[in-house]
Each structure stands twice: as C-alpha cells, then as structure tokens.
Amino acid sequence: MPTSLIWSFSSWVLWDMVCRTVWFISVSVAEAQVASIAEPLLLNAVRGDDVERPPVWLMRQAGRYMKSYQTLCERYPSFRERSENVDLVVEISLQPWKVFKPDGVILFSDILTPLSGMNIPFDIVKGKGPVIFDPLQTADDVVQVREFVPQESVPYVGEALTILRKEVDNKAAVLGFVGAPFTLASYVVEGGSSKHFSKIKRLAFSQPKVLHALLQKFTTSMTKYIRYQADSGAQAVQIFDSWATELSPVDFEEFSLPYLKQIVDAVKETHPDLPLILYASGSGGLLERLALTGVDVVSLDWTVDMAEGRRRLGPNIAVQGNVDPGVLFGSKEFITSRINDTVRKAGRGKHILNLGHGIVVGTPEENVAHFFEVAKDIRYG
Q: What is the pTM (predicted TM-score) of this model?
C-alpha cells in the first residue's frame, strides 16, 4: 500500500476517534446538566405531574431531637444566634439533609425573625419561648411598626438560602417560610404565646380598625419576605398561620382569610410558579376556607382524616401531612402502618408526606430515620 494511503487511512482513524471522544464528552456533559437542572420531586408532585412516590420532609426536621443539634446548642445557647448567623443557619438546615436526605430542606429560622426589622424588639427564651418586650396595645403602637425590608433587616436569610440551594443542588426542594399576619399579630399583642388569646380578641372585637391596620402592615411585609426568599433560592414557601384556628369561622373570614389571600395574590403576580403551602394547626373546621386563599398546598394536621381532607379540599389543590408526630414514639411496625395508611388515603399524586405538626422533642432519632426510609421506599401502584 502506498505511503500516502497509509497516512490518509491513519488520519481518518485518528479523526474518527477524536469525533467519537468529543461526542461522548458532549453527551456526558449534557446528561450531567440535565440531572442537575431536573426539578425536585416535591415541585413535580405539587404541580400534579406523574411521580413514582410522594415526596417527604418533616416539620422541625432540624431541631432538638437530633444529637448533632444538641451538641451545637451547647456551643451556641442563644436561639437567635443560631437562627441569625449564616453559617449556623446553613449547618443546622443541612443536618437532617445529610442524615435522612428528605425531599424538602427547610430553612432553619423562626416566624418572628422579621420583627426586629419592624421595630418590634423580641427574644426567644429557652424554656419560655417567644417574648415580645413591648406588646402592642394601641393605635399609636401600630403606627410605630415599620414596614419590613428584608434585604436590610435579615440579609443572613437570603445568604443562607442561596448557599442551601447550591448545597442541595436540586436533589431536594429548598423551602422558606413566613408567619401569617394574624399569627404574627397574636404574638405581638399577647406578648408571646398564649392559652386564651384574650388580648388579641379584645383588640379584634373592641378596636377592629387598629387590628386591621396591624394586619395590613404584616401582610405587606410578609409579601416582601416571601418574594425575597424566592429570589434568594427558596423553591417553595410555607405560610404558618398557627393561631388562626383560635378564631371562629366568621372571624377567620375577617381577620385572617383576606390577608392570606392578599399575600398569595400579590406573590403570584411576581412569582407565579412559586408553590405556596399553608399550615394552620387544628384547622379541621376551616379547610374549605383555607383553600379559598389560593395557596397551592394545604397542610393538614393529624386531627383531620386524610381521606376526608382530600374530599373536602377537592382535586385541584395539593395536600401535605398528616401523620401524628406522636406516632414517632411507637414501634417501627406501627410507624410503617401509619405512613402507609396516610399515603393510601391521600391517593396518587399531589401529596407531600409530612407530619401533622413538628417533630416533638425527645423523639428517637432512629425512628425519624425509619420514617424516611419507609417513605422513600413507597411506590405508587
């Protein structure tokens, strides 16, 4: 064979090998990019896409039941320090992610975090809970409440969410959260937690205009806060209206529902694809009204049968929940049976498996691990 033909053939072989190598690398890079940008299971489930199992995360999944959190608390005893330091917020938020790999990684924070930026001094005292140093009582007090500017007041929240988004890398959804207007108002009027909510009700029923003015300030501020969290990396945001169920249905329609709806409508104008989850403990008597807020997901507590909750809310809204947190003190077999019962009653799709409230202090960590293991092994038939 002539030397020129040999060189020509060799060049062709070399060129073919180069092309194949480039193609292989391109395909591999493309596949890796697709894997990294694929949306988390939780977002797909909320939209109603076909998913193989319900996504799972647990309220208070980062917290006092974990040994790693207890160790960190010994070094940093102040809750506000733990929840307002970027490095600590990220570390605590990721503790359950590293151990259990939930489908949702929620920011470690508190619904009262914005208060300092609204000229409402507070602290969270160990063994006592939230303390508002100067409870609001009059119209003049409400005038002194500033509108919340999250970029200025809580930049650490935005920084932490951005880091979490990078760390989790779409393997789970990063979740933010805020307090609902009525619940925030209850804290700042009562001066902290309450059993009877007599002060907020006295204000509501004797000076409703004053309460409405306060609720509007919280509504405007929480709308900004949700947008800020979304812009910083949160892929879904849960709204906690913990004390709304202290209201009668007719009072809920006046002092909570319109403000929740206002938040949802305003957020959807700027962030139409951001899933909003609403949780109100003890909300069995208000389910249909919760759906009227326009949220994407209603989180049920354990006092509502999941099948009944599904029926009352209808097929167009997703549900979250609702295993009794106390179940985690039971045997592994018992935990498994309750998980399966909840998933069966929720039906296929549009369901986020969760508890009906946060994990209780003292819950065995190995039982939480079992909950996640069982949940992630579930497959829809």
A: 0.90
